[in-house]
Amino acid sequence: MSAPRLAGAHHPVAVVGGGQAGLSISYCLRERGIEHVVVEAGRVAGEWRERRWDTFCLVTPNWQCKLPGFPYRGPDPDGFMVRDEIVRYLEDYVAFVRPPLVEEVSVTALRRAADGVFHLRTTDGDFTADQVVVATGPYHLPSVPRMAERLPPDVEQVHSSRYRGPGRLPDGGVLVVGTGQSGCQIAEDLHLAGRQVHLAVGGAPRVARFYRGRDCVAWLDEMGHYAKSIEDFDDAGAVRMRVNHYVTGRDGGRDIDLRAFARDGMRLYGRLTDVTGTGLEFADDLKVNLDRADAVAEGIKDAIDAHIEANRITAPHQARYVPVWEPDEQPESLDLSTAGITSVVWATGFVRDHRWIEIPVFDGRGYPMHWRGATGCPGLYFLGLPWQYSWGSGRFEAVGRDAEFLAAHIDASRRFADVCGTLTGAPTELTAALPIG
Fold first, then answer.
1. Taking the mean position of all CA atoms in its chain, how far away is CA 73?
2. Looking at the domain assignment, is residue 2 inside a domain?
3. Residue stretches of the chain with pLDDT short of 50
4. Quick one: pLDDT at residue 357?
5. Sign of the CA dihedral running 242, 246, 248, 249
6. 316 in the same domain as 359
7. Distance between CA atoms of residues 67 and 156, nearest Å
8. Which among 308, 323, 346 is the end of a domain?
């Protein structure tokens, strides 16, 4: 299939982003017979191919990969696809969907004219569309604190999105800053390779990999946790900003226990608070952060126990976690030279970059205001945001459900516009709740 033309063209729907979200909405639009174009800044699966390290794997089981019309059908549903398998899964999905895809073209500006038509500026010329789906996800620009500028120039620094493996860093100790999913898995990767790891521990929670005979994800799925919508929470804004629990699918899946790492030689500290040359300062919160992470993991087990008892499920008993290490002291400073640290991995997340969208649909934090992806601007939608509607919205697990909802919304808007002769917005019953943050 030849790539659609952009420069000077008009498309009923433009999808910006060709990752799992963009491909999912393309499938759903095609199923409804809606003409559209998908514009991807790089290559399909580029985020997985270029921003993941060599041993990266999913932290959720393969059976949760449920892209529309294309659920995981491989030989290991309870396993965890590694990076190259994820890339192949998406490439196979492209072959299955056969989307009207334009790759290696960036959309640099989006605005809406007075007549309601959207104008998109790209690196391959300008075009227009009646409706637009922004499917670029939330992870746009690596976030590195300004204190990084004060590190000595001979210390190599890399953001987690550019980390590839222990052998790509200079010999010597490595400081990993941040203990979200990426930080913990990178720290483990370095630790297993025999590197001396220093880890600045933040407030991210953790979860056990397995409990009472099953993956905790399977229990939570059965309990309806992943079907719970953002509307079921009183603090929706806070929920959307929560850090993911750390765990790993490596080697068939296991817990990530920072205490066990410390017992085996990894050096743990509290949050990094300041850098002055080779001197580092840490907060006095290491024990608090470890205890809180354990409390979350044990709380999830409590919920599983209650579910088992309430439903009279036969499941093996399992002893509860006992901490294998406690910090006798909490070091609040460290000298890079003395510790032999030659590199720093910043596992400090990403920031959104929607500056190219010249339409006022954002709140004070720069988050798009929407209801299930539909914004207050008629015809403008977002897809693939974390907790867009449920836990799986930004993942393989539920992005397809969100895509189908938006495709129905787009279809209704298109039919309504056909009746009215102009695109004036979606039917009242679909927009009654617009917009919410």
1. 23
2. no
3. 423-437
4. 98
5. negative
6. no
7. 39
8. 346
